[in-house]
């Protein structure tokens, strides 16, 4: 039971990490392929990420202890599980709760989501589901048979040809069950209304802000890890300066610099670009409006947070003001809109002329 729970927790954690890493690209692709981001499809992709890791954690982990290692057997007789189920049921009289029956059912159920996700998210039919299911199961069984490709002297779990059959059957069944999802919600084809402008709501604006925060943090964290590894390699842990502080500063500069460059080049943050929103022309010229856009966003927050106290408190006030102003206007235009008298619109909408937009007043 502990192994089952541990494998499940590991799959959820690994899936969450993948979801965070892919969050900003996922939002950007969704708005360009389907015109919006839906909770339903987001949950499906998150579930697919967890499921991908669950396949490996439940079939390959835990690895055996080398001190008590025992070689496992091999079953090369197809459909041997049929006789095993018959014998087990005849002995126990339990058709649904017998361990042998449950083992067979679980081998099928484990791969049913694979076929389901391939059809709903990938738009692939039953043939691809069967091939992918067979190939995935084959890789797992071969990994077990070879002792993780030579890491162990022999197979640490039974190589079973019946597992190939049952896993592939599960993928096929999952592909068929996916037909319960309406056709318009299946596949990766570009939606017919993907280029139709949609209202900019508070929820959409909040999604853009989350994209900016997650993106700034990921870039800063990645750069900090690399810089620290290089510093430790060059000067070692014992040095006249703190490698952690230098690495953190490098991460902040890299993430803030990237966001500044994007804002100065496009007038929009990466979160704005991902969610396909833009600010209309306001009372400020572009050469002023773009730095203001940066100064009121996640990039500036990262810079302020890195300042020594009490200046770092400015980051808190920026976040608090942004959150408060998100509730003031229906489009969530925030500080940028308030300072420059600018509205947020869908970037697929027509461009508002400067002469008209300068006459706009905040509500």
Q: Radius of gyration, rounded?
A: 27 Å
Mean pLDDT: 87
Q: Quickly count the helices.
A: 16
Helix content: 55-70%
List how many beta strands DSSP finds: 4
Summarize the helix and strand pattern as letters: HHHEHHHHEHHHHEHHHHEH
Distance between the termini: 59 Å
Order of adjacent strands in the largest pleated sheet: 1-2
> Hey, roughly how much beta strand do the residues contain?
under 5%
Could you give the topology of this structure?
Blueprint: H1 2-21, H2 23-33, H3 39-60, E1 74-75, H4 80-92, H5 99-120, H6 126-145, H7 147-150, E2 159-160, H8 161-177, H9 202-235, H10 243-266, H11 270-274, E3 277-279, H12 286-295, H13 298-306, H14 313-326, H15 334-340, E4 344-346, H16 354-357
Parallel strand pairs: 1-2
Antiparallel strand pairs: 3-4
What can you see in these coordinates?
- This protein is mostly helical and 363 residues long.
- It contains 16 helices and 4 strands.
- It has helices spanning 2-21, 23-33, 39-60, 80-92, 99-120, 126-145, 147-150, 161-177, 202-235, 243-266, 270-274, 286-295, 298-306, 313-326, 334-340, 354-357, and strands at residues 74-75, 159-160, 277-279, 344-346.
- A two-stranded parallel ribbon has the order 1-2. It has a two-stranded antiparallel ribbon with strand order 3-4.
- The longest helix has 34 residues, at 202-235.
- It is globular.
- 29% of the residues are buried.
- Mean pLDDT is 87; it is low at 351-363.
Quick structural gist:
With 363 residues, the protein is mainly alpha-helical. It has helices at 2-21, 23-33, 39-60, 80-92, 99-120, 126-145, 147-150, 161-177, 202-235, 243-266, 270-274, 286-295, 298-306, 313-326, 334-340, 354-357; strands at residues 74-75, 159-160, 277-279, 344-346. A two-stranded parallel sheet has the order 1-2. Strands 3-4 form a two-stranded antiparallel sheet.
């Amino acid at each position: 039971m502990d192994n089952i729970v541990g494998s499940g927790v590991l799959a959820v954690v690994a899936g969450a990490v993948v979801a965070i890493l892919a969050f900003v690209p996922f939002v950007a692709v969704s708005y360009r392929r389907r015109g919006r981001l839906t909770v339903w499809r987001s949950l499906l992709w998150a579930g697919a990420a967890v499921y991908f890791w669950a396949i490996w954690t439940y079939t390959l982990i835990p690895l055996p202890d080398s001190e008590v290692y025992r070689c496992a057997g091999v079953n090369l007789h197809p459909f041997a599980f049929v006789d095993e189920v018959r014998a087990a049921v005849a002995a126990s009289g339990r058709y649904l709760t017998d361990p042998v029956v449950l083992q067979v059912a679980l081998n099928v159920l484990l791969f049913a989501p694979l076929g389901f996700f391939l059809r709903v998210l990938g738009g692939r039919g039953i043939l691809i589901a069967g091939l992918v299911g067979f190939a995935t199961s084959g890789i797992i069984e071969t990994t077990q048979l070879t002792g993780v490709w030579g890491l162990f002297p022999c197979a640490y779990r039974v190589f079973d040809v019946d597992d190939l059959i049952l896993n592939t059957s599960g993928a096929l069944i999952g592909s068929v069950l996916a037909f319960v999802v309406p056709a318009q919600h299946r596949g990766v084809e570009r939606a017919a209304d993907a280029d139709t402008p949609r209202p900019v709501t508070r929820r959409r604006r909040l999604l853009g802000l989350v994209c900016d925060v997650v993106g700034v943090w990921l870039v800063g964290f990645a750069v900090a890890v690399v810089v620290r590894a290089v510093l430790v390699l060059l000067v070692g842990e014992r040095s006249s300066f703190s490698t952690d502080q230098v690495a953190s500063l490098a991460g902040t500069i890299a993430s803030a610099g990237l966001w500044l460059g994007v804002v100065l080049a496009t007038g929009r943050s990466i979160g704005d670009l991902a969610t396909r929103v833009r600010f209309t022309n306001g009372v400020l010229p572009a050469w002023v409006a773009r730095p203001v856009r940066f100064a009121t966003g996640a990039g500036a927050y990262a810079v302020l947070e890195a300042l020594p106290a009490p200046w770092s408190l400015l980051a808190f006030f920026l976040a608090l003001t942004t959150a408060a102003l998100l509730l003031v206007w229906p489009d969530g235009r925030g500080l940028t809109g308030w300072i420059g008298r600018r509205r947020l619109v869908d970037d697929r909408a027509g461009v508002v002329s400067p002469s008209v937009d300068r006459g706009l007043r905040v509500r």
